[in-house]
């Protein structure tokens, strides 16, 4: 036999052999797989600290040891973890997937309770004090809890907060850090955080800039008070070292976060990039075993646990429980198994390899129907915080004419689209704040013909356009049964469902309405939005508005509509979506979307339509100054009404998010705005696994 | 079993034909066009005889024929059988939304008409379904039925209609890509071979440059830059192929033509460079070009489907997009909804394979060394 | 010959600079930039500018180009946008072993399968078997690859459960692993390379022997020795179970890839064999009465190998690029998957870095092919 040929063959035989050998030897690994459950509790880097240092505990007499070791919770990530550095996570690597793994490990002065979004003390010992004036400045003095420790035994002190805030300021950290510590020249206008100091280990003093009015909720309670705290003793040297570098930020972000102590439920443990990461239970977690209760008057209580606390915030008095759950950690380890996409992840879920899939877009409908047929699974469905919208370029005619937008709003039948065309894949909505965020939602927005029959809506739209002075060569008409399109419409007859399309539409000043381009993500990117856009095109054509529906790459739409922009005249209408804002203060998003000082042209903000409305501006200013939640709610509702009336956006729909998990897994909460995937840092430590 | 290798003809039939033509056009009594036509017809008959010996090629042709019927069948169906049901069968906005109305009850005794409150919530977009209400459970995607021979997709679109509609798109894409490739590659190959020197070096280094680019990432980049529809995608694939690999292959073919006696004869007879290139070299390179045309079609179909599959193209409807839609709704990696995945997958495979098979068979016609006799 | 090679290398180097420039311009011309992924109403819009500054996107195109090119030729591929502040080089180094392993295995398997079946096809010209295999091969060759891969996953991983579902290792099993996946991959690649190298050495040494019996003996002992060392190394290595786990995960992608690729090799081999079989020296060999098998394997196949080797070497370069589709569908986080995410998310440095690496390797492969031709082509050897 030919030699060369033989070599080739042998090489391949070897390859095949290697495969077979491995398939056989895998018997070992197979058994290990099955039994390798809770043997490991902590990674080499994190074991040391547990219980070695005597933490300066003052309170707990009733030390109920937390039941850890209750198994392993295995969950799938549908994209890779890209960092284990908490600093980087909140700036350049701020992906939701990183948040799933890193989000729970750092304490804050105050946190939002899930699922009701109430501000509750975390490391702070009591509710935030009202700001007091000290000279020109506004100050707050906040006492911290004693007895909280990092997982290496060091106490959590006011110094950690001061260190974190100073690092943000000194290194000018960006993205999420800005919202925790606004720069002097940033959006905060005349109100910003001037100084942070630790009066002693457990007392903080915050000083805000000189101003006539006290800083509002956005800056104070929903901003600086919710900043995460990082352990000074771990990071101080690293930060100092990096300050000497040419690019201190890059140096800080490049640091390996392995070994950083945690004050959350779990400690970051192992990471095999591209494959998996794991976190292990923190035995020194302060709130371990604490029961959280929310009553129907929004009174919040946290009690019991190792800390032996019993604290109640809010009005008090009600006994009707809205939600209640106990803090963990209940499992010894959480494994995040990385799958390149959701199909593989759900397949692994179906095969029992993982207990849950951390998928920000929820279970797709097809997968849901498949999983419904499987035994031993549980489901939850929640409304999402985000919404998809149609935006108008108010810098151009005829989009700048109110009646034009309002007429389109009349003919866009969202109920029909969502319930019939898209078979329930979306929820028709009329306001930016979802109905599920009950505290902030208002129903008193203009719903533009919702619930009214197609023909009638059409007539209303035509009437609106006529009143505004629009004219046609051929007037659009919703024909009625036995209606003769050439004669005057007889309004006593039923609609026939046939329409005479308008032609040659002219604006009130007599110009022919040009072909208007509607940019929409293509069917490959989002079939829902492209379908809706197609229908908007159909309805627009009926009115005589020549709409060219153009399925366009997402990046191209953003490039055309968002800053940097020269004149903002490169587009007419587009459809995109926004993810969730801050559910405890949702109208900060409205300011970002519609504030005149946020105009995408000239100001580089997110106000892409170029909306500039005096009433809205007044509301926006008032919102900045609101110091109580009640006050902010009233203003927020008025903003919603303003937007729904003037329609810089037509809000189109939102999608419900479905979750599915293995029956042996128990989540502290399952009914929460945005679904389980929106706030995993609020439940990952509280998950129980019973087999 | 051992074949008797006969001496192979030096020239492929077409070359021979043109060779005669070049030598005799002044003395012929017949008008030139008739000679050409006759020779072309004879060449075609000869080649067809060779081609039809190859069963593989015939299979390819049959498959292409079937797809062609599908492509022209769609507008016919839309105009006849489906004409009054455009709202159902339109491949893009048509939908059929059968729903099952179920009553929400505490204890489900009849799953055909009842549903428990927990499940009901999953199907009620307002998330408010309570006992006593009814919820509409969409019956999509629906399995094949008389009304929808290939079922419907998760949006209620008719799969058969989409499949047939996309066939036209696939042919169009393939045609554009193939024509552009052949046009460019033949010209570039012939010009480079004929002129040689700096022209050759520049054009061939350009080809090398194109070859360095992995096709899919480059197409992703380009599809981000332009609003890529199928015609533009065809153009891009054609240009990349025409300047790249195909040009190199056709150049080597053109080189072997360039040294043939009839080229020399034409030159002596005073033919200009361009006359020689277009009248003598290109016609002799064309058979091989047609071969690569087939391979380009194969490639274009597969590329379009792959890009659509990743959701990177903004096309109205295509086979890849059909799979992509099924994917985004979670119908991948399972077989219970096979009609969403299998028909478009097979369509891409079969049409691509058919052109490839025809190409292979043409290869044996063009390249005598591969022939059975 | 040296002159020829140096001229080629110079041309290639120039070509590479043009290639880099072209890549840069193409990627720059994409709409949007990386910062547009950070649109978030909770974060002040001014942050967008900060991100652009940090990534150097505010420099203007020619400024960025100059920075990029100068850095490139000092070996600095820049900083990845997606993995900021990790360097592109670090990201690539993390991923290369995974891709190398997967695609080397798949390529070897497919060339072996393709060459054997191609040889058979050419020999059994015209039979039913030929039509069957050709048709099957062509359909595999042109199959809609993502679809085929999904079907394979569905069948082997989801339904028959013979192989694991995607990923490249079993997380539970690796939790306490003392090794990183990269180190295991590296060990596996090196040991495979050494085995192949060892086999080649054995083959060459044995080929030099005069006596046929000595040849056989040497070859056999040599092979046993090489495989013995290989088996002994892995048997004694504490990495073995981890390597086995990775291999188990690699089976499905490797087999799928090999199925797709082998038909191409088969068709090349067939064509090349058919041409070779018409050469005069084959006729001579027949006339001499040399047995068919010897003619096929020794005379024809050997020379028909040339185009196959060419395509093998040219293909090797693109191994690094990996199968963008394969890696994405099989959740194998290698270079292909990196390239796809980099290109789609406007991570220009990572995209150019990856593409440039592939381009450089492709150029080197071109030169290698030129040289190999000098050695393998019998006509050139006779002259030499």
Can you give a write-up of this model?
The complex is a heterotrimer of chains A (691), B (373) and C (384). Chain A is built from 17 helices and 27 strands. By secondary structure, chain A is of the alpha+beta class. A six-stranded mixed sheet of chain A has the order 18-24-17-23-21-22. Chain A has a five-stranded mixed sheet with strand order 8-9-14-1-15, sandwiched between helices. Chain A has a four-stranded antiparallel sheet with strand order 4-5-7-6, covered by helices on one side. In chain A, strand 4 and strand 5 (137-143) form a beta hairpin. The termini of chain A are far apart. Chain B has 14 helices and three strands. Chain B has helices at 13-24, 32-53, 55-79, 86-89, 117-123, 159-195, 197-212, 215-225, 230-243, 245-258, 261-268, 273-309, 319-328, 338-366; strands at 99-104, 114-115, 134-138. In chain B, helix 3 (55-79) crosses helix 6 (159-195), helix 10 (245-258) packs antiparallel against helix 12 and helix 11 crosses helix 12 (273-309). The model of chain B is unreliable at 1-25 (pLDDT under 50). Chain B has 373 residues and is mainly alpha-helical. Chain B folds into two domains: 56-77 and 155-372, MetI-like (MetI-like fold); 99-138, no CATH class. Chain C is mainly alpha-helical and 384 residues long. Chain C has helices at 2-28, 46-55, 61-72, 88-123, 128-142, 145-159, 171-174, 181-208, 212-236, 240-277, 280-288, 292-321, 324-329, 335-344, 348-376, 378-383. Chains A and B meet through helix 8, helix 9, strand 16, helix 11 and strand 18 of A and helix 5 and helix 13 of B.
- Largest sheet strand order of chain B: 2-1-3
Quantity of strands of chain B, as a count: 3
H/I helix tally of chain C: 16
Q: What's the architecture of the largest domain in chain B, going by CATH?
A: Orthogonal Bundle
Mean pLDDT of chain B, as a whole number? 82
- CATH-assigned fold name of the largest domain in chain B: MetI-like fold
Biggest chain pair contact, residues each?
Answer: A-C, 97 and 91 residues
Distance between the termini of chain B: 12 Å
Chain oligomer state? heterotrimer
Written as H for each helix and E for each strand, in order along the chain, the element string of chain C is HHHHHHHHHHHHHHHH
Mean pLDDT of chain C: 84
């Amino acid at each position: 036999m030919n030699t060369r040929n033989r070599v080739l063959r042998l090489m391949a035989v070897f390859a095949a052999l290697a495969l077979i050998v491995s398939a056989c030897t895998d018997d070992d690994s197979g058994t290990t797989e099955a039994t390798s459950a809770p043997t490991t509790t902590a990674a080499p880097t994190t074991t040391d600290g547990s219980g070695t240092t005597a933490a300066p505990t003052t309170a707990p007499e009733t030390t109920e040891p937390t039941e850890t070791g209750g198994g392993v919770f295995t969950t799938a990530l549908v994209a890779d973890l890209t960092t284990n550095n908490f600093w980087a996570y909140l700036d350049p690597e701020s992906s939701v997937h990183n948040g799933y793994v890193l989000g729970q490990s750092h304490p804050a002065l105050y946190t939002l309770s899930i699922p009701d979004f109430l501000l509750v003390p975390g490391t702070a010992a009591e509710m935030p004090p009202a700001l007091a004036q000290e000279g020109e400045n506004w100050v707050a003095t906040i006492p911290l809890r004693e007895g909280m420790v990092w997982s290496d035994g060091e106490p959590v002190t006011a110094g950690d907060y001061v260190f974190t805030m100073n690092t943000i300021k000194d290194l000018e950290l960006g993205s999420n850090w800005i919202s925790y510590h606004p720069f002097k020249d940033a959006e905060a206008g005349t109100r910003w955080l001037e100084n942070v100091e630790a009066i002693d280990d457990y007392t903080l003093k915050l000083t805000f800039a000189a101003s006539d009015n006290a800083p509002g909720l956005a800056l104070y309670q929903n901003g600086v008070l919710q900043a995460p705290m990082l352990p000074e003793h771990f990071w101080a040297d690293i930060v100092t070292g990096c300050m000497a570098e040419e690019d201190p930020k890059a140096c800080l972000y490049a640091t390996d976060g392995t070994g950083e102590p945690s004050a959350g439920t779990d400690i970051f443990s192992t990471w095999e990039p591209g494959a998996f990461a794991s976190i292990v239970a923190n035995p020194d977690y302060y709130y371990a075993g604490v029961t959280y209760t929310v009553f129907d008057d929004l009174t919040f209580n946290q009690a019991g646990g190792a800390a032996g606390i019993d604290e109640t915030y809010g009005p008090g008095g009600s006994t009707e429980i809205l939600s209640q759950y106990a803090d963990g950690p209940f499992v010894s380890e959480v494994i995040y198994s990385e799958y390149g996409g959701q199909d593989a992840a759900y397949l692994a879920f179906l095969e029992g390899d993982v207990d849950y899939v951390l998928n920000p877009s929820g279970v797709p409908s097809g997968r849901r129907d498949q999983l419904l047929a499987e035994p031993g699974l549980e489901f939850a469905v929640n409304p999402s915080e985000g919404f998809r919208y149609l935006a108008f370029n108010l810098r151009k005619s005829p989009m700048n004419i109110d009646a034009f937008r309002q007429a389109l709003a009349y003919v866009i039948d969202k109920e029909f689209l969502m319930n019939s065309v898209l078979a329930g894949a979306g929820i028709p909505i009329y306001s930016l704040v979802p109905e599920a965020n009950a505290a902030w939602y208002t129903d008193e927005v203009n719903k533009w013909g919702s619930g009214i029959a197609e023909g009638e809506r059409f007539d209303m739209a035509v009437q609106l356009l006529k009143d505004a002075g629009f004219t046609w060569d051929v007037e659009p008409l919703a024909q009625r049964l036995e209606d003769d399109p050439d004669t005057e419409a007889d309004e006593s007859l039923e609609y026939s469902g046939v329409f005479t399309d308008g032609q040659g539409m002219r604006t009130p000043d007599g110009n022919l309405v040009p072909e208007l381009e509607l940019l929409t993500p293509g069917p490959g990117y989002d079939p829902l939005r492209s379908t809706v856009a197609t229908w908007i095109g159909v309805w627009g054509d009926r009115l005589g508005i020549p709409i060219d529906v153009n399925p366009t790459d997402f990046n191209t739409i953003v490039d055309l509509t968002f800053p940097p922009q020269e004149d903002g005249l490169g587009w007419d209408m587009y459809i995109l979506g926004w993810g969730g804002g801050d559910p405890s203060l949702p109208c900060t998003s409205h300011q970002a979307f519609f504030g005149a000082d946020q105009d995408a042209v000239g100001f580089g903000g997110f106000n892409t339509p170029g909306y500039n409305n005096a009433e809205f501006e007044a509301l926006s200013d008032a919102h900045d100054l609101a110091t109580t939640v009640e006050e902010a709610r009233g203003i927020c509702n008025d903003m919603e009404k303003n937007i729904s009336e003037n329609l810089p956006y037509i809000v189109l729909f939102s999608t419900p998010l479905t979750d599915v998990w293995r029956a042996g897994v128990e989540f502290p909460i399952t009914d929460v705005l945005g679904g389980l995937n929106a706030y995993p840092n609020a439940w990952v430590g509280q998950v129980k696994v019973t087999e | 079993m051992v074949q008797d290798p006969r001496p192979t003809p030096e020239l492929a039939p077409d070359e021979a034909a043109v060779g005669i033509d070049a030598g005799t056009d002044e003395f012929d009594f017949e008008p030139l066009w008739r000679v050409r036509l006759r020779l072309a017809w004879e060449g075609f008959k000869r080649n067809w005889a060779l081609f039809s010996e190859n069963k593989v090629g015939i299979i390819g042709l049959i498959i292409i024929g079937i797809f062609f019927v599908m492509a022209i069948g769609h507008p016919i169906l839309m105009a006849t059988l489906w004409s009054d049901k455009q709202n159902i069968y339109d491949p893009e906005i048509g939908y059929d939304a059968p729903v099952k109305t179920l009553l929400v009850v505490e204890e489900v005794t009849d799953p055909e008409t009842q549903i428990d409150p927990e499940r009901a919530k999953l199907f009620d977009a307002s998330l408010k379904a309570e006992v006593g209400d009814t919820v509409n459970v969409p019956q999509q995607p629906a399995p094949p039925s008389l009304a929808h021979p290939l079922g419907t997709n998760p949006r209620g679109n008719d799969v058969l209609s989409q499949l047939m509609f996309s066939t036209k798109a696939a042919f169009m894409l393939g045609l554009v890509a193939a024509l552009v490739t052949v046009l460019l590659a033949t010209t570039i190959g012939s010009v480079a071979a004929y002129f040689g020197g700096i022209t050759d070096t520049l054009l061939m280094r350009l080809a090398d440059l194109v070859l360095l680019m992995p096709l899919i990432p480059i197409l992703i980049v380009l599809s981000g830059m332009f609003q890529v529809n199928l015609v533009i995608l065809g153009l891009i694939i054609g240009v990349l192929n025409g300047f790249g690999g195909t040009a190199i292959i056709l150049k080597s073919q053109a080189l072997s033509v360039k040294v043939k006696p009839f080229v020399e004869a034409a030159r002596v007879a005073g033919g200009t460079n361009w006359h020689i290139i277009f009248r003598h070299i290109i016609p002799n390179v064309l058979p091989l070009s047609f071969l690569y045309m087939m391979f380009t079609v194969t490639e274009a179909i597969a590329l379009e489907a792959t890009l659509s599959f990743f959701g990177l193209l903004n096309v109205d409807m295509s086979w890849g997009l059909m799979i992509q839609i099924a994917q985004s709704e979670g119908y991948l990696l399972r077989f219970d909804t096979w009609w969403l995945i299998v028909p478009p997958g097979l369509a891409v495979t079969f049409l691509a394979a058919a052109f490839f098979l025809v190409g292979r068979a043409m290869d044996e016609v063009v390249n005598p060394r591969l022939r059975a006799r | 010959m040296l002159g020829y090679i140096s001229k080629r290398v110079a041309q290639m180097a120039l070509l590479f600079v043009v290639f880099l420039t072209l890549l840069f311009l193409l990627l720059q011309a994409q709409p949007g930039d990386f910062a547009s992924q950070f649109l978030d109403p909770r974060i002040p819009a001014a942050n967008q500018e900060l991100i652009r500054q940090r990534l150097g996107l505010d420099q203007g195109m020619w400024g960025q180009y100059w920075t990029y090119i100068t850095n490139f030729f000092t070996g600095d591929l820049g900083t990845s946008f997606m993995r900021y502040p990790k360097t592109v080089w670090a990201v690539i180094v993390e991923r290369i072993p995974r891709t190398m392993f997967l695609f080397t295995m798949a390529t070897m398997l497919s060339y072996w399968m393709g060459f054997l079946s191609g040889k058979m096809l050419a020999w059994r010209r015209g039979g039913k078997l030929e039509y069957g295999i050709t048709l099957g091969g062509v359909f595999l060759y042109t199959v809609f690859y993502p679809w085929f891969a999904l079907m394979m996953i569905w069948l082997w991983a989801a339904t028959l459960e013979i192989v694991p579902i995607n990923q490249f290792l079993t997380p539970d099993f690796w939790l306490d692993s003392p090794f990183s996946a990269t180190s295991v991959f590296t060990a596996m690649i090196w040991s495979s390379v050494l085995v192949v190298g060892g086999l080649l050495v054995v083959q060459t040494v044995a080929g030099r022997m005069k006596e046929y019996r000595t040849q056989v003996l040497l070859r056999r002992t040599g092979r046993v020795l090489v495989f013995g060392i290989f088996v002994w190394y892995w048997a004694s290595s504490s990495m073995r179970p981890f390597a086995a786990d990775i291999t188990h995960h690699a089976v499905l992608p490797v087999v799928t890839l090999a199925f797709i690729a082998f038909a191409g090799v088969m068709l090349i081999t067939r064509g090349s064999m058919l041409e070779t079989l018409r050469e005069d020296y084959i006729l001579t060999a027949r006339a001499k009465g040399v047995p068919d098998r010897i003619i096929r394997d020794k005379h024809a196949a050997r020379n028909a190998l040339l185009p196959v080797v060419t395509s093998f070497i040219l293909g090797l370069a693109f191994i690094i690029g990996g199968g963008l589709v394969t890696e994405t569908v099989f959740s194998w986080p290698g270079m292909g998957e990196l390239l796809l995410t980099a290109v789609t998310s406007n991570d220009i440095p990572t995209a150019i870095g990856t593409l440039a690496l592939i381009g450089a390797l492709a150029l080197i492969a071109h030169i290698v092919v030129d040289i190999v031709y000098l050695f393998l082509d019998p006509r050139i050897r006779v002259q030499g």
